[in-house]
Every structure is written in structure tokens, then in C-alpha cells.
Specification:
- There is one protein chain.
- This protein has 128 residues and is an alpha/beta fold.
- Helices cover 44% and strands 12% of the residues.
- It is built from six helices and five strands, in the order αββαβαβαβαα.
- The radius of gyration is 16 Å and the shape is globular.
- It starts with 6 loop residues before the first helix and ends with a helix.
């Protein structure tokens, strides 16, 4: 979202502090802009549909790929991003390797969620 902490802000901050970042390359997900999710939920509320729906921006990537895209789109071409495995990260709680949400429900209601890269571009233009 446009407020608070998130992965994009963290990567941009770390890139000002370090020449090299190590980012997990074995976890896949669907990066989602909170503004797009809010619009999708608003569209869902306006239907007569009920049930459980997954809302996420289209597309999927690893955290590593997303970090590279964040730096590329922000114009930072000097910070080196290197892949690492989840096991090397040594987090206290296990993380799923595949967190891509199925958007079939939104798609069946013709609720279109933009691609995460387009959402990232809008986020960066609005906030940086």
C-alpha cells in the first residue's frame, strides 16, 4: 500500500544502504498493490456473488525477481541482487514455496486485476 512498510519500500531502502542484496529465489507469489485489491474488493461487493474469493494482481514471480524489477523500475541499476534459498534465510517460521493465488473467482465475475508489474510502476510513480 501507499502507507506503512512493504517489500518495495524495504528493497528501495536497503538499496541505499548496501551494494548487494541477497533475496530468496525459491518462493513464488503474486505481488499485489493494496490499492488494486481494494478496488477489486469494491467491485466484488457490488455483485450478488458470495463465497470465498482470492484477489491478487495478475502474474507471479519469486521475491528475487520482484526485487530486481523494483530496482530496475526505480532506476537503480547499480545495486547487485543475488539469489538465495529459503533454508539459508533461516526464518523462525516456515514459508510456503508456492503462494500464487487462483484468481478464477474474480475472473468469473469479470473483475480484472492488473499485472503486478504495471501495479509496481504505478506505486513507484505515486510514491517516489
Amino acid at each position: 500500500g501507499d502507507q506503512g512498510h512493504n517489500f518495495v519500500r524495504t528493497i528501495l531502502k536497503l538499496a541505499t544502504e548496501r551494494e548487494e542484496l541477497q533475496i530468496v529465489n525459491d518462493q513464488m507469489g503474486s505481488p499485489t498493490y493494496a490499492l488494486d485489491l481494494a478496488k477489486g474488493i469494491d467491485s466484488l461487493i457490488r455483485t450478488r456473488a458470495y463465497g470465498i474469493y482470492h484477489g491478487a494482481n495478475a502474474g507471479a514471480c519469486t521475491w528475487f525477481d520482484f526485487a530486481k524489477e523494483i530496482l530496475e523500475l526505480s532506476g537503480n541499476l547499480q545495486t547487485v541482487v543475488k539469489p538465495m534459498s529459503t533454508k539459508d534465510l533461516k526464518r523462525p517460521a516456515p514459508r510456503p514455496q508456492y503462494s500464487i493465488l487462483a484468481r478464477d473467482g474474480f475472473n468469473s465475475l469479470e473483475i480484472v486485476m492488473p499485472h503486478y508489474r504495471e501495479a509496481l510502476e504505478r506505486f513507484l510513480q505515486k510514491n517516489f
